[in-house]
Amino acid sequence: MTNPRRWSLAGQIFAAQVLVAVLVLAGGLGGAYVQARHASEQQATSRVLAVAHTVAATPLVEQAVGTADPTSTLQPLAEQVRRSTATDFVVVMSPTGRRWTHPDPRQIGRQFIGHIAAAAAGYDLTETYTGTLGPSVRAVVPVRDGTGAVTGLVSVGIRQTAVAAAVASQLPELLGAAALAAVLFGTGSWLVARRLRRQTGGLGAAELQEMAEYYDAVLHSVREGLLLIDGAGRVRLVNDEARRLLSLPESVVGRPVTEAGLAPSLTATLASGEAREDELHVTDARVLVLNQARASWQGRDLGTVTTLRDRTDLEALTGELDSARGLAEALRSQAHESANRLHTVVSLIELGRADEALTFATGELAVSQRLTDEVVASVQEPALAALLLGKAAQASERGIELAVQGSGLPEGVVPSRDLVTIVGNLVDNALEAVTGQPGARRVRVATDWQDGCAVLSVSDTGPGLPPEDLERAFARGWSTKAGGGPGGRGLGLALVRQSVLRLGGTLSVEGPPGATFVVRLPARVGEDA
């Protein structure tokens, strides 16, 4: 026999419903039978009491009880009444209980079996008692003369076998109603079980519990953010990592994703329901990689499943790697230029022009030293100074003049990693802006320390940003160059804005002509990447 615990949840519920239905129907049928029996007894009592009153009030009875031979007159009348009223006995007796009539003539003249004291005292009496005809429901009422004195008694009864037969006649109706209720209840239970089986996939309660436990454990332990958004745009599921990455409140489940307080670009992507693959999104504190796909079950659309990966540290390291790569490229260019200059000096010496060789060499050295002195005087932060020297070499190779000015930026007031991210991206954008432009191509970097804030300014002589593009310029994927979009260009200014907001600073843009980006960062002495 199959263990009920291994049945499907739908099967267990169906079995439980059938058991409950059997118990309810059995109890209801028993209650209906008891009620029907009680009603039949009450009906029999009312009927015999009415017949007894009718017989006792008949004038012929009142006259006959005062004669010397009441039986000769009352026996035919009593039997006629018994047959016409379908009762089992009609007995007329003296006030002391001696019978004048009886269905069995042999019982005439004998003492009535039952209680008659109340009736002899002038009251009606009903009871269930066992007499000569067996157990019966009977009534005993007094017969009065013209003065109200009790001159006789009338007892009318119906045997309990007749009452039981009347109840039994109602059993087919009771059983039919019970059968109909069983069919309706069984059909309803079967339909409910069928629907439940379809919804649970035929799994048992233990299997569903195990699935829920594993589902919950996996959902909250994965290191990727996971969101499920239904077709109406409401958040239906969010795991712990997604709450952390997006700073979502506990009450976000069930609310529209447009009310979750996310960045506009991220909100638009999640609300669109469109498939996305490895799409970068920049929030106020993080760089996230988003993948989104439609979810369905047995052909029914459930909405979208979105996964998020934190790429903040990776983007920061990538920016530093790009800066290091640019610096290496600048050093390679400088090495190439130094080799050319060294060959020039050697050739001048071989030609006997030592004075010209000395003048050429000292002039080049002065140019390099002046640039280094400018950077060191303006920036005391080693990482930023090294970055600007590398960018200056890149600018020189591309024919761009890069100037560094300032009153000096103290070391350690702003995390070096954020300085490299902010200044590096702004300078790269400025170099891109002036590359290929006619006329003078200049980029100017200025640093200052004002009222406890580091002030960084990067300006260029490029075409500048049109007013309608100022806000879009800081969005992920925006670029004036080809290749903008997810995974390509257009991430630099978004990273700058993210870093500035995270540090509690401000960012402003001026121009055209040209473009000037001004960043103000409050000091965070002792904090460094």
Relative strand content: 15-25%
Secondary-structure element series? HHHEHEEEHHEEHHEEEHHHEHEEHEE
Which CATH class of the largest domain is shown? Alpha Beta
CATH architecture assignment name of the largest domain? 2-Layer Sandwich
Distance between the termini: 68 Å
Task: Supply Rg.
Answer: 54 Å
Overall mean pLDDT score?
A: 75
GO molecular function, one term: phosphorelay sensor kinase activity
Organism: Oryzihumus leptocrescens
Membrane topology: Multi-pass membrane protein
Keywords: ATP-binding, Cell membrane, Kinase, Membrane, Nucleotide-binding, Phosphoprotein, Transferase, Transmembrane, Transmembrane helix, Two-component regulatory system
Q: Topology of this structure?
A:
Layout lengths: L8 H48 L2 H6 L5 H16 L3 E5 L23 H4 L4 E7 L2 E11 L5 E10 H41 L4 H17 L3 E5 L5 E4 L1 H7 L17 H9 L3 E7 L4 E11 L2 E11 L1 H39 L3 H25 L3 H16 L3 E6 L9 H19 L7 E9 L2 E8 L31 H11 L3 E5 L4 E8 L7
Parallel strand pairs: 10-11
Antiparallel strand pairs: 1-4, 2-3, 3-4, 5-6, 5-9, 7-8, 8-9, 11-12, 12-14, 13-14
Helix pairs in contact: 1-5, 9-10, 9-11, 9-12, 10-11, 11-12, 12-13
Describe the structure.
There is one protein chain. By secondary structure, the protein is of the alpha+beta class. It has three domains: 11-166, PAS domain (Beta-Lactamase, 2-Layer Sandwich), CATH 3.30.450; 222-310, Beta-Lactamase, CATH 3.30.450.20; 321-522, 2-Layer Sandwich (Heat Shock Protein 90), CATH 3.30.565.10. Helices cover 49% and strands 20% of the residues. The chain contains 13 helices and 14 strands. The protein has helices at 9-56, 59-64, 70-85, 117-120, 160-200, 205-221, 240-246, 264-272, 312-350, 354-378, 382-397, 416-434, 492-502, and strands spanning 89-93, 125-131, 134-144, 150-159, 225-229, 235-238, 276-282, 287-297, 300-310, 401-406, 442-450, 453-460, 506-510, 515-522. The protein has a five-stranded antiparallel β-sheet with strand order 6-5-9-8-7, with helices on both faces. Helix 12 (416-434) links the parallel strand 10 (401-406) and strand 11. Mean pLDDT is 75; it is low at 482-489 and 525-529.
